[in-house]
């Protein structure tokens, strides 16, 4: 339970479900992949806690996460908006930010702030 969650870009691309405005090759989803790959061990744990309610991945990693993490485009969102989640179904509503820096900043702020779980 204390091991650090790890993933590679291929894992994220293969084992997450981009939907409703995102596809595997949409710029917003690819930014998300790069942001996740750039996270430190603690940031990865916080991200998993935020999106799945658990700070670790099952044995076998993202491939064995059920349900799979679904990433959808949060409509009517701006660079000032924050992502929100439905933890039970591993559903992340992610605004299509204009840059990786902004996405990283907003995603990390949301993962550190427990109040975003209910949006």
Automatic annotation (TrEMBL):
Top-level taxon: Eukaryota
Domain HECT, residue spans: 1-119
Coiled-coil spans in chain: none
Purpose: E3 ubiquitin-protein ligase which accepts ubiquitin from an E2 ubiquitin-conjugating enzyme in the form of a thioester and then directly transfers the ubiquitin to targeted substrates.
Similarity remark: Belongs to the UPL family. K-HECT subfamily.
InterPro entries reported in the protein's UniProt record: HECT_dom (IPR000569), Hect_E3_ubiquitin_ligase (IPR035983), HECTD1/TRIP12-like (IPR045322)
Enzyme type, top EC level: transferase
Name of the protein described by the UniProt record: E3 ubiquitin-protein ligase
Catalytic activity line of the entry: S-ubiquitinyl-[E2 ubiquitin-conjugating enzyme]-L-cysteine + [acceptor protein]-L-lysine = [E2 ubiquitin-conjugating enzyme]-L-cysteine + N(6)-ubiquitinyl-[acceptor protein]-L-lysine
Entry GO MF terms: ubiquitin protein ligase activity
Pathway: Protein modification; protein ubiquitination
């Amino acid at each position: 339970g204390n091991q650090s969650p790890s993933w590679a870009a291929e894992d994220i691309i293969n084992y997450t479900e981009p939907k409703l405005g995102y596809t595997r090759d949409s710029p917003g989803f690819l930014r998300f992949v790069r942001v996740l790959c750039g996270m430190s061990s603690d940031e990865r744990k916080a991200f998993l806690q935020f999106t799945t309610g658990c700070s670790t991945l099952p044995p076998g990693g993202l491939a064995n996460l059920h349900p799979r993490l679904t990433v959808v485009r949060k409509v009517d969102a701006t660079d000032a908006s924050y992502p929100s989640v439905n933890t039970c179904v591993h559903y992340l509503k992610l605004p299509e930010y204009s840059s990786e820096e902004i996405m990283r900043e907003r995603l990390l702020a949301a993962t550190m702030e427990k109040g975003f779980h209910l949006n």
